[in-house]
Amino acid sequence: MNKTKVVVLGASGFVGQSFVRSFSLDPSIDLSITSRNLSTGALFFDILQPETWSALLEIKPDIVIDASGYGIVKNQTDLHMLYRVNYLDKRDLIDYLFKYLPELFWVQIGTAFEYSLENEALDEDSPCFPRTHYGISKLLFSNYLQMVVKRQFTILRPFGMFGAGEDISKLFPLLIEAQKSRKEIELSDGLQKRDYFYVNDLADFVLDLVRHKTIFKLEKEIINVGTGEARSIRELSQIISEKIEGFDHALWNWGAIPQRQGENQIFYNASVKAKRLGFISTNLDEAFQNTVNYYHNL
């Protein structure tokens, strides 16, 4: 059997880890992962060090899945680094790869933050006027793919994701950690509505597209990935609370701080494109149980 050679960039990150978990179990995939750490046994690669890029040429991958990024975690505040990692150096990387690997297919993991979030229901034709540097930098690279590269790529724009490996500063890990450590945290009212899904579902979706070669038929496509349903943060948190033994509601101090200035009250995926292509979202009860178990055992 001819295996599909896949490289995952950003394999140590939250989203990248989920791709490694899913793709490593499939016998039809020859998976390579990259790392900036020489001691991991992974392929040494650093987007900020062009001298490491040739390592990808030696593998000759059929597909590169770009799950790398900077700026979504609270302590990632270096704007110069953000634009280098998410756009400037990545632009140079893809030019380099297509020069030497002209048959390569690139799967870009973008973000819903590329859109103008003033619109509540977002599909692939929604206007893109991002308000965050993270969203702007991701959109710049998406535009580069569409306007300059113009071939052999698919852009996925996931909405909110949760699950194993998410940084502890993010909302759901923070809620779980507060219960685990028995320390109160101050929260906004939690009435904001978002479209959240289990991170493994994105990886499984892409794996299915790769396994059946469907991904190659989606050249130059943009695909939103989400459940299509907006739920309040409080509603989602209630599901989590039911999974935590000895839950203490007093540790989640809702309404203690204001919402962030200019925060959008609701946005969600209004596209059915991903579902038509086979995207399946895990039941929230099961997904949050898995997530609670992961952080409880850390």
TrEMBL record:
Which superkingdom does the taxonomy of this entry point to?
Answer: Bacteria
Identify the residues that the record assigns to the NAD-dependent epimerase/dehydratase domain, covering every copy: 6-226
Q: What is this protein called?
A: NAD-dependent epimerase/dehydratase family protein
Q: Which residues form a coiled coil?
A: none
Could you tell me which Gene3D superfamilies the record lists for this protein?
Answer: NAD(P)-binding Rossmann-like Domain
Note the PANTHER family from the entry: BIFUNCTIONAL POLYMYXIN RESISTANCE PROTEIN ARNA (PTHR43245), UDP-D-APIOSE_UDP-D-XYLOSE SYNTHASE 2 (PTHR43245:SF13)
Leader peptide range in chain numbering: none
Q: Which InterPro entries match?
A: Epimerase_deHydtase (IPR001509), Lipid_A_modif_metabolic_enz (IPR050177), NAD(P)-bd_dom_sf (IPR036291)
